[in-house]
Amino acid sequence: MIRSKFAIYVHILSLMGSFPEEWLTSDFIAGSLNSNAALVRKELSALRNAGLVESREGKNGGSRLARPLEDIRLSEIFALVKSDHIFGFSPNDPNPACPVGRNINKALDSLFTGIDETVSRELSPITLAAFIQKHF
Q1: CATH no. for residue 88?
Q2: How far apart are CA 39 and CA 43, in angstroms?
């Protein structure tokens, strides 16, 4: 979930950053994502609630970035989509009678926390402006 949601958010925000003066419609954004406008509107709502996007309704309505490109960091987008660890635990509860089973989730939680922090730290210096400039 994190992987796809992060990619969708970076795509939407990069598209908006490429057209900074324009109010982009959900149909236009959906065309870039090769998705549907209903999904885009749902994601725009989350981005708006996070203060990254502003929207207006009406004939000339649409959405655009609420802040300058230089003020949006990829780590902020990552934090927005990350509700749990990047990696997940086994869907089965480990056997508490097993010496590995009773400790594995605690050990993995520690490992996963470190991985999450590393990803956030790697994304932190990258602004949306730098990302767009490098790739588009």
Answers
A1: 1.10.10.10
A2: 6
